[in-house]
Amino acid sequence: MKCFSRYLPYIFRPPSAILASSCHAEADIISTVEFNHTGELLATGDKGGRVVIFQREQESKNQPHRRGEYNVYSTFQSHEPEFDYLKSLEIEEKINKIRWLPQQNAAYFLLSTNDKTVKLWKVSERDKRPEGYNLKDEDGRLRDPSMITMLRVPVLRPMDLMVEATPRRVFANAHTYHINSISVNSDYETYMSADDLRINLWNFEITNQSFNIVDIKPANMEELTEVITAAEFHPHHCNTFVYSSSKGTIRLCDMRTSALCDRHAKFFEEPEDPSNRSFFSEIISSISDVKFSHSGRYIMTRDYLTVKVWDLNMENRPIETYQVHDYLRSKLCSLYENDCIFDKFECVWNGSDSVIMTGSYNNFFRMFDRNTKRDVTLEASRENSKPRAILKPRKVCVGGKRRKDEISVDSLDFSKKILHTAWHPSENIIAVAATNNLYIFQDKVN
Predict the structure, then answer these.
(1) CATH number at residue 206
(2) Number of domains in the chain
(3) What's this model's pTM, rounded to 2 decimal places?
(4) Which 8-state DSSP code applies to residue 102?
(5) Contact 227, 246 (CB under 8 A)
(6) Which class for 55: exposed (0-12), middle (13-18), buried (19 or more C-beta within 10 A)?
């Protein structure tokens, strides 16, 4: 960003209301956030299997500053709780990921997945209804043929706008383990779904068959040393994809080399510093998210304490490493005891790949400018979320004297965590999921 100084502190503002339920029910906890390709729509999925889509308001001459506001556009139940009778397993309805398809016509299409089943949804608008059927009355009941004395021409009458969500495809029964990633290919004909040990390639038109492109399951499960944690297609090359592992490694695969990509084309790993080795080293090096840059030149990965940027042409170490919350290094023991050390934080690029964002605890989220190397910590909370309010940078102090505007590392709330974030594809608008609340902030409008 050329004028990043005016964004630091980042001046994003929330809408007039926080777009979520205020009660802290388990089913209301947001589990994924995703803008569509234009940024006009924003979809969230929650643990209750629901998908809520927000639409951006059109700009009006009277209130140009309201352009950034998002209002509820559609809500539908994507997944229901199921039971696998063969394995005696309950399958949660929680939405793990949502991915939009580029818009081809008036309707919108998105993929949503829980642990086992991927669904393709069509979201469309209806503002007209047909009237004047010959064989049916207006309520849809069949008319008595003897009463039909004349031929009527059906007409379309205006009606209140209705948004319908209909499932067009259901891709099921292909994963033994929990699906952690879905990614739409740049050919827009195929997509992949990844679980702990396998990655499958699907055609959008074929629901009963998928092609296994990665299988890291050992012959003897006792020899299992790592699992797949995330996977994504290259934004421009339909033959290339990456997947990350719990060992902190990233593999780049090329589907042109062989049908089963059991051999990677590139292997990205940073050598471990022996002096930093500890009991928690393997846990905190596990990669929770991997994202290609929009240009396709870089890969960003998030592990427990850092965000790293890798150049596709350099495999031995990342070109950039950003400390997200290094002050937690001394707290790893208690974070292990309360299971927070296993939290899976996501990371996201801005539209120009110049700034990256990721979440932390205490409802903090972090932004790093790749050009100026400056960073900022901001907080998503109801207290500082009045409309048009400017977000103030937050600082965490480690020991010693604490300044007035600082917060002690000992007083951080680890139950408040920002795992899921999204950035508008072309503008400075961000969506931050803080447990069961969705915050939308935007660059300051004059």
Answers:
(1) 2.130.10.10
(2) 1
(3) 0.86
(4) P
(5) yes
(6) middle
